[in-house]
Amino acid sequence: MSKAHEEGGDLVSSERLASAFMSLGIAEPTDEAEIGPEPSTYKAALRSPQARQWKEAMRQEWQALVDNHTFDIVAKGNTVHMPTTDRTVEEPIGCKWVYKRKINPDGSTRYKARLVIKGYEQKEGIDYDETYALVSKMATFRLILALATQYGWDVDHMDVVTAFLNPQIDRDNIYMEMPLGIDWLVSDSSASNGNTSNRSASDGSGLILRKALYGLKQAPRLWYEDIDGYLQSIGFRQSAEDPNLYLQQGVLLVLYVDDLLIVHNGEEGHQIKQLLQKKYKMCDLGAAKRFLGIEIEKTKDGGFTICQRGYINTIIRRFRLMDAKPAKSPLDPQTDLANTVCEDKPANRKEYLSMVGSLMYAALGSRPDIAYSVTALSRYNIQPLEMHTMAAKRVLRYLKTTSDFRIHYRRLPLSSHNTKSPLSGTLTLTGRETSPPGSRLEDVCSGLGPMAAMGL
Amino acid sequence: MSGLVHWQAKSQSVVALSTLEAEYIAASHATRESLWLKQMLKKAVDGMGVMACNRAVPIGCDNQGAIKLIASGVVRQKSKHIDVKYHHVHDEQMRGLVKFHYVTSESNPADLLTKPLAAPCHEQLVQLIGLTPHHPHSDSHTEIST
User: Fold this and answer.
1) Number of CB pairs < 8 Å for A and B?
2) pTM of the model
3) B113: domain range?
4) Are A428 and B46 in contact (CB < 8 Å)?
5) ipTM
6) Does any CB of chain B come closer than 8 Å to the CB of residue A402?
7) Are residues A38 and A85 in the same domain?
8) What does the alpha-carbon distance between residue A400 and residue A152 come to, in Å, rounded to a whole number?
9) In a domain, A36, yes or no
10) In this predicted model, what pLDDT tens digit does every residue of A49-68 receive, in sequence order?
11) For residue B47, is it within any domain?
């Protein structure tokens, strides 16, 4: 927090920021003003003051891809097979470097470079077919967390390192252009491990993909199929209720792309972790603290709370509402969003959609109190007006005011008739539903809101 | 109550002709969601050495007419047009999978999900569903009874 003073000594805001971040308990985000934005292109990376770090990051990424056997280098004019398909090394799919700075837990900055394929250049039917990949429902995650609270199971978090690079590719004719910087990348990597594939890169050769790569249209699906197959092979059964919930004796596993929530009761959990690590390069993050942007905290009474404080702060910054007035409720009941009589300027649709989308994630994760607002706002996604943007901003201000709101999962006393075993108990759900009739046309299809709370 | 695990705010896709019908359709939706959760819960605890209970899922509803219709399954003049598919709610209640009970409109937490509320009312319901600003040290908050 040193730079605020240099910028003309705006002490108030610097203090406010400091306290905000302290209350957040999370690392302060990198200050863009100080070390510059993340470069968006290869050229910009090499021009930036951190060119050395970015170059090193690219070198690491390249080495990881080579070690992983993600692709082979092929010379142009050397298309040996696939005379029938359109995709050849002469018309490769483009690729680009993506740069990201990350903060380590110890506060230092990590430079990451990732080589991504330009998936949008892929043609359906030629380069890919299916792209859909399942993800787990938020309710599943919360139900499992509530159960773990009740029975005192461990809730661990693991993630798969560069998950999408694991699966084999589903076709053998996906050619990609050489990435920028290939000259020094190839000579560096072959010098370091004595690789003989020291083909001069500038001679117009390309890459043929052997495994999935980030950006590839089918990568999420290939990855899902890969890990799904492996989980089933090590004894997990897929739940019919949510295909991303995997079950086996003593272990519950919630899969969300490359994040795994592993709920277990000791021994079995460790075995599963070992089996997973045998197949994939994984990061064992221990007790889950943050899953899908939802912060999980243990409470004194042995329960958990979930909240999205960090996420909310991020979106407040994204929409530049750091200094906005607080709001005590998400929507003003006096405001008629459907009022088309008054003349209103059309809003910036892109920004509006982005706001509604950002709110949606909070509504789905831990904030039922804004669920209705998000539904109401998304009715105007097609043609938002200024007033709808104002309403969306109010929901954001409400979130900012209440960013600390959390759902608390408590351990309930086991009922008396069920005390035979410490692990026996019963759970029930409470649902609530209502749907008020409306006078306006849009309300005729009235709102619906079942809620479920776990109880004993 | 332990903690909220599932919620949904959604416009109904069919036009309801009366409050009763709207509530009835909502009841059907709530029933399906509870059965989904119940089944998942049962599967989840099965392999963990815990017995899941088979008690009916209590569901609150603020419309007496709908509750009666669910309990009786008897269709009258005002409800005879309701699509047959929604009558599964009656069957599920008969089979003991769900149990509908009355809540007053004033204390229906699901109002949070169906309309914009003024700040005091909003705050009250937020507390009722157990959404709290920081770790409460005790269970002093209003509980949703089961």
Assistant:
1) 321
2) 0.81
3) 106-146
4) no
5) 0.88
6) yes
7) yes
8) 32
9) yes
10) 888 999 999 999 998 898 88
11) yes
